[in-house]
């Protein structure tokens, strides 16, 4: 009892205000994220009727169907392939650009704006434009290829190429965002290190690998974790770019695409939910591995 | 060490939470997002004699091409009854998401279009206003003037009528006159068989890949391969809606006929067709023939290239059976079960189904009206095109295949047919596979 009286009025008011400021975010998180998570888990055990009515409890039947559904595993594999292409390239390119645009280059802010622009454009609009660029018959890319005497490429209808084409759009869209995060990381590195390195005779490439890269690793870690999660959730570009009669769709559709198809086109929300649960588990696993592996390469100075 | 591991797990969980959170959110937010896209049009506020304080009926449709014409008809309705209406256009892709969200949240539009793909679950869960008794008592509405099949679509298990037919659509053949002239092929006429079609496709195909005979996608069922299947004695679903017809010899024969033409190279490579609609290829002068539904008229007839070079003919018939079938479908006007203005909503539906409004719908060239004998003026809608072909096709109609789970088996069959189209699997294997899976789906209905 004695201890409690020691909490001053000031401390109490700070406590209250602290929670007040947290409230809007907490409310959003709970209503838009936490509650839907539990609803999704709940739904995945039901054969759902239309309009939120007529749900029948079926235990683990959805999961049983999930494990024997070839399309789901193919979609998981597609998603991983996409992530393997998108994540490393979007990070590497963004980092190199960030280093260059962090230096003294003429028109620096214009370049930064240009690279960040795709982030501002609506993803659906971006996908539509790329869809036309990629069109095998009337698209600009094949027009140029034919112009120099090469044969056209079926960018989005060849099963072996389509996921790369989609990933290129993903990389292009996200470079600007990654770049901005790297800018923040680069600001943190004290200039003295570079000066000292210069005096010791290290060139730009040496500096990049011995100073920039180790010291930016915390930012890199954050970008990697969020990018992997983002890439595993790819949906809009596939949905917008690939038509339903596209022969490459089966080899390109992601888990979220499959979830959308089952839940919202075919109205089977229960099965859709179980697919999302699988995705959740996969992402959870990958993220945990990343968390454990970070000790090996992330440098918190 | 142990504590740290848990910290790691917790952090991973929080990050991963974003996934499911987003997934759930996507579902909940689709509705408002698409509602945002919904274009609201000016109220049709005629000078009504009845100025009593009444609300405005919200009317949801998905085809913006029909909006001006329907607004005009509803203006007449407002003048007659004093009930105001407001049309909201939501594109087809978002329309059903919007309607589903509305039904789930109890905020459906007052009056809206229904389609054979979706009517089953709306009836099953009683989301629609039961019109049975009102139709019986109505003096304006004569249900026997509408095609039986269309009335039947919107009838729930023979007891409840949930919608009144609005229009019907038929399929016809579009051909490029310039290409036919160049190749020296006579224009399609009423004696044309599918063999003539194949012969023409061959002659119209150029070896350098700049021009092909025809284009047809596996997703183009009603306006495409369905017609040939029924002509050749096959079917998609049995009359009792209990079994699939994909394993029928006629169905396999028809699909083999189409895929053989593709193997011969009379259609563009599958990848090109997958990325471009038949209409786009036709409008670009890439293919000489396509089959298209009457709902495509505003698109095709307003295209300058099509206007200058193309015309419409009846679909070919099958030489063996002599059948020239057009698959047809028709929309219905339905109302929400929990609308605040059931009487007003009913009056609008009754009016839209009356001979007067149906006649006007055809006269304005909006669509082919469902009401018997109101379609004569429709052919004047687009000058310079032989629209009569679409009306000719009404002599042998088969309703678009549907059951309670149409969307599910339809999508499944489209996906599997891709392998037949590309030649990756034999037509027979694909058809048997589809039949098996479709039968399983039908058994669950």
From TrEMBL, chain A:
<keyword id="KW-0812">Transmembrane</keyword>
<feature type="transmembrane region" description="Helical">
    <location>
        <begin position="161"/>
        <end position="184"/>
    </location>
</feature>
<dbReference type="InterPro" id="IPR035906">
    <property type="entry name" value="MetI-like_sf"/>
</dbReference>
<dbReference type="Pfam" id="PF00528">
    <property type="entry name" value="BPD_transp_1"/>
</dbReference>
<feature type="transmembrane region" description="Helical">
    <location>
        <begin position="271"/>
        <end position="293"/>
    </location>
</feature>
<keyword id="KW-0472">Membrane</keyword>
<comment type="similarity">
    <text>Belongs to the binding-protein-dependent transport system permease family.</text>
</comment>
<dbReference type="GO" id="GO:0005886">
    <property type="term" value="C:plasma membrane"/>
</dbReference>
<dbReference type="GO" id="GO:0055085">
    <property type="term" value="P:transmembrane transport"/>
</dbReference>
<feature type="transmembrane region" description="Helical">
    <location>
        <begin position="82"/>
        <end position="101"/>
    </location>
</feature>
<dbReference type="InterPro" id="IPR000515">
    <property type="entry name" value="MetI-like"/>
</dbReference>
<keyword id="KW-1003">Cell membrane</keyword>
<feature type="domain" description="ABC transmembrane type-1">
    <location>
        <begin position="76"/>
        <end position="290"/>
    </location>
</feature>
<dbReference type="InterPro" id="IPR051393">
    <property type="entry name" value="ABC_transporter_permease"/>
</dbReference>
<keyword id="KW-0813">Transport</keyword>
<protein>
    <submittedName>
        <fullName>Sugar ABC transporter permease</fullName>
    </submittedName>
</protein>
<keyword id="KW-1133">Transmembrane helix</keyword>
<feature type="transmembrane region" description="Helical">
    <location>
        <begin position="113"/>
        <end position="133"/>
    </location>
</feature>
<feature type="transmembrane region" description="Helical">
    <location>
        <begin position="21"/>
        <end position="42"/>
    </location>
</feature>
Automatic annotation (TrEMBL), chain B:
<comment type="similarity">
    <text>Belongs to the bacterial solute-binding protein 1 family.</text>
</comment>
<feature type="signal peptide">
    <location>
        <begin position="1"/>
        <end position="22"/>
    </location>
</feature>
<feature type="compositionally biased region" description="Polar residues">
    <location>
        <begin position="37"/>
        <end position="53"/>
    </location>
</feature>
<dbReference type="InterPro" id="IPR006059">
    <property type="entry name" value="SBP"/>
</dbReference>
<protein>
    <submittedName>
        <fullName>Sugar ABC transporter substrate-binding protein</fullName>
    </submittedName>
</protein>
<feature type="region of interest" description="Disordered">
    <location>
        <begin position="28"/>
        <end position="53"/>
    </location>
</feature>
<keyword id="KW-0732">Signal</keyword>
<dbReference type="Pfam" id="PF01547">
    <property type="entry name" value="SBP_bac_1"/>
</dbReference>
<dbReference type="InterPro" id="IPR050490">
    <property type="entry name" value="Bact_solute-bd_prot1"/>
</dbReference>
<dbReference type="GO" id="GO:0030313">
    <property type="term" value="C:cell envelope"/>
</dbReference>
<keyword id="KW-0813">Transport</keyword>
């Amino acid at each position: 009892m004695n201890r409690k009286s020691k909490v001053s009025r000031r401390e109490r008011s700070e406590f209250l205000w602290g929670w007040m400021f947290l409230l809007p975010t907490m409310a959003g998180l709970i209503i838009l994220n936490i509650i839907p998570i539990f609803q999704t888990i709940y739904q995945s055990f039901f054969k759902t009727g239309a309009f939120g009515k007529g749900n029948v409890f079926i235990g683990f039947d959805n999961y049983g169907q999930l494990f024997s559904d070839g399309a789901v595993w193919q979609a998981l594999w597609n998603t991983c392939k996409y992530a393997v292409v998108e994540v490393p390239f979007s990070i590497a390119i963004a980092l190199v650009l960030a280093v260059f645009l962090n230096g003294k280059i003429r028109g620096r802010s214009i370049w930064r704006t240009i690279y960040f622009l795709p982030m501002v454009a609506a993803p659906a609009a971006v996908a539509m434009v790329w869809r036309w660029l990629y069109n095998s018959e009337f698209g600009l890319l094949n027009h140029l290829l034919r112009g120099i005497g090469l044969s056209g490429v079926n960018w989005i209808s060849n099963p072996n190429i389509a996921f790369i084409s989609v990933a290129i759009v993903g990389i292009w869209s996200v470079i600007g965002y990654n770049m901005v995060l790297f800018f923040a990381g680069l600001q943190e590195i004290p200039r003295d290190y570079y000066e000292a390195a210069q005096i010791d005779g290290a060139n730009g490439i040496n500096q990049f690998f011995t100073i920039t890269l180790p010291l930016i690793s915390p930012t890199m870690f954050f970008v990697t974790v969020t990018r992997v999660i983002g890439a595993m959730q790819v949906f809009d570009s596939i949905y917008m770019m690939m038509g339903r009669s596209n022969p490459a769709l089966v080899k390109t559709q992601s888990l979220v695409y499959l979830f959308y198809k089952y839940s919202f086109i075919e109205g089977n929300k229960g099965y859709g939910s179980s697919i999302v649960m699988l995705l959740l588990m996969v992402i959870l696993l990958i993220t945990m591995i990343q968390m454990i592996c970070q000790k090996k390469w992330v440098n918190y100075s | 060490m142990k504590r740290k591991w848990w910290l790691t797990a917790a952090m991973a969980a929080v990050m991963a939470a974003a996934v499911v959170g987003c997934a759930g959110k996507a579902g909940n937010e689709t509705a408002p997002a698409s509602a945002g896209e919904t274009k609201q049009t000016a109220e049709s506020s005629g000078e009504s004699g009845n100025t009593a304080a009444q609300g405005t009926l919200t009317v949801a449709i998905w085809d913006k091409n029909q909006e001006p014409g329907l607004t005009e008809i509803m203006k007449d309705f407002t003048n007659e009854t004093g009930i105001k209406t407001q049309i909201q256009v939501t594109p087809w892709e978002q329309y059903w998401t919007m309607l589903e969200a509305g039904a789930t949240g109890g905020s459906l539009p007052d009056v809206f279009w229904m389609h054979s793909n979706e009517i089953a679950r709306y009836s099953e869960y009683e989301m629609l206003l039961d019109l049975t008794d009102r139709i019986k008592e109505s003096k304006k509405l004569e249900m026997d003037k509408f095609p039986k099949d269309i009335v039947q679509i919107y009838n729930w298990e023979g007891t409840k009528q949930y919608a009144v037919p609005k229009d019907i659509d038929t399929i016809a053949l579009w051909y490029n006159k310039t290409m036919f002239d160049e190749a020296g092929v006579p224009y399609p006429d009423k004696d044309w068989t599918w063999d003539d079609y194949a012969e023409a496709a061959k002659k119209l195909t150029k070896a350098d890949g700049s021009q092909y005979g025809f284009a047809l996608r596996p997703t183009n069922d009603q306006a495409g391969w369905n017609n040939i299947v029924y002509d050749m004695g096959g079917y998609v679903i049995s009359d009792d809606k209990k079994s699939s017809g994909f394993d029928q010899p006629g169905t396999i024969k028809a699909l083999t006929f189409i895929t053989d033409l593709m193997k011969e190279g009379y259609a563009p490579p599958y990848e090109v067709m997958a990325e471009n609609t038949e209409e786009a290829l036709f409008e670009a002068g890439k293919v000489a023939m396509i089959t298209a539904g009457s709902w495509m008229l505003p698109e095709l007839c307003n295209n300058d290239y099509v206007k200058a070079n193309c015309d419409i003919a009846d679909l070919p018939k099958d030489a063996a059976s002599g059948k020239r079938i057009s698959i047809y479908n028709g929309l219905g006007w339905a109302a929400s079960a929990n609308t605040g203005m059931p009487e007003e909503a009913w009056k609008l539906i009754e009016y839209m189904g009356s001979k007067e409004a149906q006649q006007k719908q055809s006269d304005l060239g909006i669509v082919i009206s469902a009401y018997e004998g109101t379609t004569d003026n429709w052919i004047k809608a687009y000058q310079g095109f032989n629209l009569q072909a679409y009306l000719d096709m009404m002599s042998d109609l088969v309703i678009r295949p549907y059951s309670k789970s149409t969307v599910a088996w339809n999508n499944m069959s489209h996906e599997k047919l891709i392998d037949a189209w590309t030649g990756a699997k034999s037509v027979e294997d694909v058809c048997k596979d589809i039949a098996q899976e479709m039968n399983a789906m039908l058994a669950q209905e």
